[in-house]
């Protein structure tokens, strides 16, 4: 057993976008702190941050219909859409700052302009989309969004949606040029390159097996080095658990009371993908539709242009599945190992109250290859099976948490869990995750380092000019901020 006697300042567990983002923030705010990153795999960005493992939309609620539900009175609730969009603007500001500082490379290495569209068919859905557009079009964060139910206009936006489509079918779409495609794998790798060039130690192949708190408030991080099997203990004053689906298990091992009542529901899946240049050239947009009844928000069908490592592809899905693994590289025992007395009742209550979700997952598991391809043809009617192949998506672990009224609820989103003394924090959950990494990590800083608030405020304002403000409340500031970041990142305003 190798043990370090002097504690380091910060231990980041997990080599994904969250640890990379928190590390970059801390390196800017406190360059003298010692920071180490521990990743179980032999490279960074291999789980949820991998561009083919779900991450990559650049969630800004421009096209994702699950952020704008229809209320019982028929009106559209845009609250979540505004919140997600504001969060994405915060991420863009930080990335812009790092590009200007030379900490990130040319922005087209990780972000590219890609129109975002919503597309529906059926009279009720057309009316819903019309109302959604009316609710958003006057909002400063959604300026430039267009609506049409004219097949010719929609064909001009995205020809592949219309070729071979039955005439007379009621359809509608919204279109906005300000959308982006983000390669979070490339962004993560570039952030770690910046960190390691500035003194941060990145330990790959180090599997963290335990966390225990000492009387002096420091944490002992126990791990196994994969190459040699050597057992290592490292002490740290602050620990962040950004291990994706592995975060729940590690936070449970830490013993902090704040993790009590939390459980996880893993969802796997797959996509159809094509790299054929002739097919890819037919469609240059991210197109989101409506989820099936009972489907979780993360399963909303979408036909995406993806730019990964500079090459364009198309991806359609996701097709939901189930695996008890919490990570793509995890164990089939992950779900069962996560069950505790304190989260058993919330998990049972969630199972009993989400019958539609269970039926949906069973239906997806039983779906044939043909029916899955037919789902693609609802968006791209002339798609040819020979041009497409299946890829396995990453694992997502939806948060289950205690609820006073319902006993337990399934939460679609992310949850920051922090110890009362601020010495450890972790992130649970999934979408919109990566796109909102910066505001999520700002929440970690606020909760865990309250004594640094005044000292860091000036630098934070330099990195994120609108920090603490609501862009939605100031049209002029929203336009100026989005225009400035668009210019810095070389994307459409």
TrEMBL record:
Reactions the enzyme catalyzes: (S)-malate + a quinone = a quinol + oxaloacetate
NCBIfam families listed in its UniProt record: mal_quin_oxido, PRK05257.1-1, PRK05257.1-4, PRK05257.2-1, PRK05257.2-5, PRK05257.3-1, PRK05257.3-2, PRK05257.3-3
Pathway(s) of this molecule: Carbohydrate metabolism; tricarboxylic acid cycle; oxaloacetate from (S)-malate (quinone route): step 1/1
Name of the protein this chain belongs to: Probable malate:quinone oxidoreductase
Gene assigned in the entry: mqo
SUPFAM superfamilies xrefs: FAD/NAD(P)-binding domain (SSF51905)
Keyword Oxidoreductase listed: yes
Organism of provenance: Frondihabitans peucedani
Top enzyme class: oxidoreductase
Cofactor(s) listed in the protein's UniProt record: FAD
Family: Belongs to the MQO family.
EC number: 1.1.5.4
Pfam families in the cross-refs: Mqo (PF06039)
InterPro entries: FAD/NAD-bd_sf, MQO
Superkingdom classification of source: Bacteria
Keywords of the record: FAD, Flavoprotein, Oxidoreductase, Tricarboxylic acid cycle
